[in-house]
Specification:
The complex is a heterodimer of chains A (388) and B (257). Chain A is of the alpha/beta class and 388 residues long. In chain A, 44% of the residues lie in helices and 18% in strands. In chain A, the strands form 3 sheets. In chain A, strands 3, 4, 9, 10, 13, 14 and 15 form a 7-stranded mixed sheet that branches. A 4-stranded antiparallel sheet of chain A has the order 1-2-12-11. Chain A has a 4-stranded parallel sheet with strand order 7-6-5-8, with helices on both faces. Chain A is globular. Helices cover 46% and strands 14% of the residues of chain B. Chain B has 12 helices and 8 strands. In chain B, strands 1-2-3-4-5-6-7-8 form an 8-stranded parallel beta barrel, surrounded by 7 helices. The interface between A and B is large, with 37 and 41 residues. The structure holds pyridoxal-5'-phosphate (PLP). The site of pyridoxal-5'-phosphate has 21 residues of chain A, from helix 5, helix 10 and helix 14.
């Protein structure tokens, strides 16, 4: 039996997941679940999505062996190049699927939350392409540190609203997007950006990102004829990680989801319920959600998708952490050794690989390069000022 | 059938030909206990006490602000319930809290803590029917009445299942949206209350978007009563507990036939 779960009506991955939303949203989640199931099994929908993914987003994405860095670290290192997708990250896979679905459901408008702005940019892009109105909520702190993406969203015709409540980061952007959806649910689809939220989102978003793992598995098979020893990805909500993990979950590969030390939902959290799901969550002794702190806006989140909590609970995947300092080093390491500037999010995966390399000498490591670092250059200029 | 204290109170009000008035106060907000006493002294049938949560997705700016201020002041579910115990206002109390507060404490422990503090009911806005089983079981065992929310988006076949599980009253959500004051009562408020009244004997109270005495009077033309949240908290924030008392007296007059 495959470890890749298809949840039933209760939306559970083991004890995790579910649908903890205000009563107002229950019918909308049920309709979305039905519409997704129907579309996913409809050849016309799949054909349309596949052609968007190939002709518009540029799939399949490549597989690059890092000869320089691999040699330096004593491993064989392969990158799944989600950074080369249109809009610069894996987020477009999910967004094209959801926006196409929203259109099919007769919705006129989408709302989205965004952290690093990559999901916001992808949402604004798909909305422009498919003719929907788009509003993106973004924490005020992230509006500041990812200003380039704010401008991109506006260029694409989306409305961007800075969220000033709470920690003013991704968590609060999700709250505000949900509040919008509660008020506009009849005309609006909530285009959630990761494998989180109420059922069917964690399942649906994973299905849209499976293409990463399916392609990578085929590419590894073709290139090497063997499966990797380890598959490594960064984890915010966990969508790029679930995407690549799903291709290897039934192999012997170690699955490693790297969390930021300041946003370690699995490492430092306990089961809790927020944003519609039961999952590991950083919280205080009274159940108040704690604020995450990470250099990377896309991983600055105190929760994690429920399927990751499940995989952690059964011991199938590991969720180590890296510090901001290790991430800054990883970011530069990838740039200088391979000529690839990674997003700060996936620089977490680079950081883990370079730290752990002595323990995995000679192994084959596949890393999901979930996005490119252009958006982070401004922030890194400030951080590295005078040190280059 | 015997009813809990909350439902008994609201049914009695109805049987006497009256309408129920349930103000909401954020627990732990400076002056919250005085505000509760002012409500009780000016015609409230029961009080809904909010346990502040870090991520209140069903709340608009006013209650968000009140929650944050209460948390900053150091309020915790435990500290609030401890103070509730000594309130002694003579009318039933219910708490409004997000589900993680319950889940984190543990269902049995939380239900027992409520009962032990003299709280009759619980309103959990992010715990829909399908997920409510384990909590309801613990609440029933502890004698805590679980108020169910019904929303304007519910299809006809869903409402009977929601009201069947409701104890205390049915919270008829007045509009599509979060808590906060609005210029006018939405048509959805009376529409949904009417649909609910047609299928249940449990008292039906409209909350979310009932923003002043006049809107309350409109709502009770159909419903058995109203909940007043943001309009009460705005007065507490701007002017203090006395203003809350005056406002509750005004709403009471407006809904008295
Ligand atoms: C490039 C990139 N990778 C990863 C993430 C984190 O999201 P997830 O964990 O859902 O892949 C983001 C989010 O903004 C991102 O932009």
């Amino acid at each position: 039996m495959s470890l890749l779960i298809t949840p039933g009506a209760d939306g559970r991955f083991g004890e995790f997941g579910g649908r903890f939303v205000p009563e107002t949203l229950v019918p909308a989640c049920q309709e979305l679940e039905a519409a997704f199931t129907q579309a996913w099994n409809d050849a016309d929908y799949r054909r349309e999505l596949d052609s968007l993914l190939s002709e518009y987003a540029g799939r399949p994405s490549g597989l690059t062996e890092c000869h320089n860095l691999g040699k330096q670290l004593g491993i064989r290192l392969f990158l799944k190049r989600e950074d080369l997708n249109h809009t610069g990250s894996h987020k477009i896979n999910n967004v094209l699927g959801q926006v196409l679905l929203a259109k099919r459901m007769g919705k006129k408008r989408i709302v989205a939350e965004t952290g690093a702005g990559q999901h916001g940019v992808a949402s604004a892009t798909a909305a422009a392409l498919l003719g929907l109105e788009c509003k993106v909520y973004m924490g005020a702190v992230d509006v500041e540190r990812q200003s380039l993406n704010v401008f991109r969203m506006k260029l694409l015709g989306a409305q961007v609203e800075a969220v000033h409540s709470g920690s003013r980061t991704l968590k609060d952007a999700v709250n505000e997007a949900m509040r919008d959806w509660v008020a506009t649910v009849e005309s609006t689809h909530y285009c959630l950006g990761s494998v989180m939220g109420p059922h069917p989102y964690p399942f649906m978003v994973r299905q849209f990102h499976r293409v990463i793992g399916d392609e990578a598995r085929e590419q590894m098979q073709e290139r090497l004829g063997v499966m990797p020893d380890a598959v490594v990805a960064c984890v915010g909500g966990g969508s790029n990680a679930m995407g690549i993990f799903s291709g290897f979950i039934d192999t012997d590969a170690r699955l490693i989801g790297v969390e930021p030390a300041g946003g370690a939902a699995v490492g430092r959290g306990q089961p809790g319920v927020v944003h519609g799901m039961k999952s590991y969550l950083m919280q205080d002794e009274h159940g108040q959600v704690q604020e995450a702190h990470s250099i990377s806006a896309g991983l600055d989140y105190p929760g994690v998708g429920p399927e990751h909590s499940y995989l952690a609970s059964i011991g199938r995947a590991e969720y180590p952490t890296v510090t901001d300092e290790e991430v800054i080093a990883g970011f530069q390491l990838m740039a200088r050794s391979e000529g690839i500037i990674p997003a700060l999010e996936c620089a977490h995966a680079v950081a883990w690989i370079s730290r752990e390399a002595p323990k995995i000498q000679g192994k084959i490591v596949l890393m999901n390069l979930s996005g490119r670092g252009d958006k982070d250059v401004g922030q890194m200029m400030d951080i590295l000022d005078g040190k280059l | 059938m015997t009813y809990g204290r909350l439902e008994t109170q609201l049914r009695q009000r109805r049987e006497a030909g009256g309408k129920s008035l349930v103000p909401y106060i954020t627990g732990g907000y400076p002056g919250w206990q005085d505000a509760i006493r002012a409500c009780a002294a000016n015609g409230a049938d029961a009080i809904e006490i909010g346990l502040p949560f870090s991520d209140p997705v069903m709340d608009g700016p006013i209650i968000q602000q009140a929650s944050q201020k209460a948390l900053q002041a150091g309020a915790t579910p435990i500290s609030i319930l401890q103070e509730v115990r000594s309130l002694d206002v003579g009318i039933p109390l219910a708490v409004m809290c997000y589900y993680n507060t319950v889940f984190h404490a543990g269902h049995e422990r939380f239900a027992f803590a409520l009962a032990d503090s003299g709280v009759s009911g619980a309103i959990i806005p992010d715990l829909p029917l399908e997920e409510s089983g384990p909590w309801c079981e613990a609440a029933d065992a502890a004698g805590v009445e679980t108020v169910m929310l019904a929303a304007p988006t519910a299809p006809d076949d869903r409402l009977p299942r929601v009201v069947a599980r409701a104890r205390g009253f049915v919270y008829s959500v007045g509009l599509l949206g979060v808590t906060g004051e609005r210029a006018a009562l939405e048509l959805t408020a009376t529409d949904l209350a009417r649909r609910l009244k047609a299928i249940t004997e449990v008292p039906v109270l409209v909350g979310v978007g009932v923003s002043n005495a006049q809107q309350a009077a409109q709502a009770v033309q159909v419903a058995d009563g109203v909940i007043q949240g943001a309009s009460v908290m705005r007065r507490l924030i701007e002017s203090g507990a006395d203003a809350v008392g005056e406002y509750i007296a005004e709403v009471r007059r407006a809904i008295t036939p």
